Amino acid sequence: MFKLIFATMALLWSANAVFAQQYSLYGKVQNANSGQVLSGATLEVKGLKRFTVTDEAGNYSFDRLPAGTHVMEIRFLGFRPKQEMITISENREQNFELEESAQMTDEVVVYATRAGEKSPATYSSISKQLLQKQNFGQDLPFLINWTPSVVTTSDAGNAIGYTGIRIRGSDATRVNVTINGIPYNDSESLGTFWVDVPDIASSSQSIQIQRGVGTSTNGAGAFGASINLQTNTRNDKPYAELMTSAGSFGTFRNTFGFGTGMIDDHWVIDGRVSRIVSDGFIDRASSDLRSYYFSGGFYTNGTMLKAISFGGKERTYQSWYGVPQSRLENNTEAMLTTASNEGWNEEQTENLLNSNSRTFNPYTYKDQVDDYQQNHYQLHFSQRMGDAFTANLSAHYTKGKGYYEEYRYDDDFSDYGLQPVTIGDSVIESSDFIRRRWLENDFYGLTYSVNYNVDTWDVIFGGAWNRYDGDHYGEIIWSEVSTVPTGYRYYFNNGDKKDFNLYLKASHQFSKKINGYVDMQVRRIDYIANGIESKQNVVDVKENFLFFNPKAGLTYLASSNQQLYLSYSVGNREPVRDDFVDAPDGKTPKHETLYNLEAGYRRTGNILSLNVNYYWMDYRDQLVLTGQLNDVGASVRTNVDNSYRMGLEVEGLIKISQKLSLNANITFSRNKIKDFVEVLYDYGPFFDEYNEVRRNYSNTDISFSPNVIAGSSLMYKPFRNAELTLLTKYVGRQFLDNTMNNERSIKGYTVNDIRFSYVIKPKFVKEVTFSVLANNIFDKKYESNGYTWGYIAHFYEARENYYYPQAGTNFLAMLTLKI
C-alpha cells in the first residue's frame, strides 16, 4: 500500500512539474525601419499549431507554452516573413521586427487618406481580427460602437437594416466616408446608407476613424469625423471560410468567402457572398439583405493592379416613423391626441391603440418597403518609380437604382398634379394611393496621387474628379379612384454634381523628436438640379462653391512610446440637396465652415496604452433645423452664426494580467449654439390662420449631442482559445431640438453586452470558432434616436415626440469555419 501511495504521489509530482513548465510569451511586432507597430501580424509557434494575432497596439501574447526551444514564424502583409528560434524557460517578453517587402501591397491605395502614427490627428484603427470578433451580421456602425465619441441607432431596433451613426454629436451627413479612398457619401444628401452594402465588414481589412477634420481628402467635408474603410488586402495563402449565425427576431446570416492565394507569384483572386434576413424588433421591420465582394489583383515588385466589385440588394420594411411618446407611455388619452395631431383615420388609430408600446409601427400595408440595389466597381493601379516615388490612380463607378413604396390615405389629387375627378354628380378631390418614389443614379470618377518618401520627407500630391447624375421621380401604381392612369409619374427632377479637388500633403522630420505636417486642399463643387419635386414645387438650383481647406500640425516624440501632438484645420462643407430644394423664397443657404483644434497625448505599451485628446470645433453658419417650414410644408434648415463643440476624449488599454484586460474610453463635451431662434406656426383657433411665432434662446445644447459618452470592453481569457468579453456603452441625455428642453429629449442610457468565443483547431480544417453575443443583458428599455414637431392653435400648443426604441435582451450565435 505504501509503495502504491508513493508511486501515485511521484506521478502527480511529475505531472505537476510538467504543468509547471508552461510559460507565457508576450511582446510587440514592429516595422524594423520605422518602429511603427504592426496591428494584425500573425505569429505561429511551428509544430504546436499555436497561432495569435497582434492587437491594435501591435501586442501579442501566448499562454502556457511548454518549456524548450521553438520556432516562431511571424507574417504581415507587405513584410518579409520571419522565423526565429525562441527558448522558453520562464515567462518572458520578446519583441519582433519585420523588414518591408519589395513587392507592392494594397496599403498604397489608402495611404493618401489615412493618418499615420506620426500624424497630428485624432484617430482609432480597427483591425480585421477585431471586426471578425464582433461581426455577427449587424450593420457596420454597430461594429465600431465602442470607439470614442460614437453613438449608434437602429430603426428596426436590432442593428440590422437602416442604422445610423453620430460621432462627436455630428450625424452621418457630416462624417466623411471612403472605401479604398473612394468617396461613399451620397453626393446630394451627403448621408451614408450602410444597408446598401450589407456585410461589408466581412470584406474589410481595416477601418480607421478620424475624429474632427482629420486627414480626409476625397469626398464630402469631414465636419465631425471620417470613416476610412479598406477592403480585403492580398492574402498569399489560399483560404475559404463559412460564417453562419442565427438569433433573436428570426435573424439568419450566411457568408461564404474564399481566396486563391498567390498564383504564379503574381495573381490573387478573392470573393464573398452573403445573405442576412431578420424580422426586426419593431413590428414588421423585416430586412432581406444580399451582398457580394469580388476582387482580382496582379502584383510585382513595383506594380499593383487590382479590380474590385462589391454591392448589395436590400429590401427592408419601413420603420422610419418611430414610436410616439404617448404609445411608449401607454397613455390612451395622449394617443388619441397623437392620432388627431397626425390626422390619422380610424384604422391607423386602432393600430396605435392596440400595438405593443415599444414595437409600434404605423405602417401596415404589406409592401411598405424600401427596395434598392447598389453596385460598386473600382480599379486601382499603383506603380513604384525608383526608391522615392509611388504613383496611384483609381477609377470608380457606382450604379444605384431603387424605390420605396408606400400606401397613402386620403391624399388630395392636387398633391399629385391631378385635377379632381367627377363621377356622376360627385366631385372627388382625394383618394387612397400606392406610390413609389424612385432614385436612379450614377457616380463615377478618378482619384490619383503621387507619393514622395525619402529620408525626412513624406510628400503626397493628389486629387480627384467625381461626377454624380441622379434622377428622382415618383409613380402612382394604384389609386382607389380607377381613373388615375397606372404608372403615372407625378414628379421628376435631376441632380448633377461635379466635385473636383487638388491637395498637397507634406510631413517632415525636423529632428529625432519633432515631426511637422501641412496639408492644403482646394475643392470646387458645381451643383445643378431642376425639375418638379414631390410636393409639386419647382426645383431650379445652379450653385458652385470653391473651398480652401488648410491643415497643419506638429508631433513631438517625448520617448520611444510617448507622443504629444497639436493640429489646426479648416474645413468647408456645401449644403445638402434638401437645403437647396426646400429653401424658402429661393433663398440660397450658406456653406458651413469649421475651425478645428486638436491637441493630444499618445502612449503605447505592452501593459498600458493611453490616448488623451482635447478638441475645439468652432462652426460658422452651421445648418440646423429650427422648426421653420417653407411654402409647401417642408422643414427648413437655417444657418446659425456661431456654434461650437469642445471636449476631452480619454482612451486607454490596460493589461491587468495575461488573462484579463480592459479597453475603455470616455468623452466629456460641451456642444453649444450661441443664439438660436425656434419657429412655430400658429394656425389660430379654427386652423384658418398662418402666423410665425419666434422664440429666442441663448447658449443652448446642439441637438443629439450628449455631454458624456463612454464605452468599454473587459476581456477575460478563462482558458486556452476561449475569450469572454463584457461590452458596455453609456450615452448621456440628448435633446431632440436646440431648445435644451428636457421634455423633448432622449434620456441617458447604459447598455451591457456579453460576447463569448471559443476556437478549436481540428486536423480537418484550419480553425472552427463558436461565438455567442448576448445583447442588452440587463434588458434595459431605452431609445437611441428620435425627433419632435409641434404647432400652436391660438392658446393651445401641441408637441409630439417620436422615439426609436431598441431591443431588450436578445441573442446571436455564430459558427465560423476557416479552411
Stretches where pLDDT falls below 50 for ≥5 residues?
1-20
> Main β-sheet, in a few words?
22 strands, antiparallel, barrel
Structural class: mainly beta
What level of helicity do the residues show? under 10%
Average predicted confidence as pLDDT = 91
Shape: globular
Tally of strands: 45
Please work out how many helical segments DSSP would assign. Answer: 7
Would you tell me which CATH topology of the largest domain applies? Answer: Maltoporin, Chain A
Query: Into how many domains do the coordinates divide?
Result: 4
- Gyration radius, rounded: 29 Å
Percent strand equals over 45%
Q: Specify the CATH homologous superfamily of the largest domain.
A: TonB-dependent receptor, beta-barrel domain
What is the architecture of the largest domain at the second tier of CATH? Beta Barrel
What is the CATH domain class of the largest domain? Mainly Beta
Distance between the terminal alpha carbons, to the nearest Å?
Answer: 52 Å
Give me some keywords for this one.
mainly beta; 58% strand; Immunoglobulin-like; Ferric Hydroxamate Uptake Protein, Chain A, domain 1; disordered N terminus; 7 helices; single chain; Maltoporin, Chain A; 22-stranded antiparallel barrel; 819 residues; globular
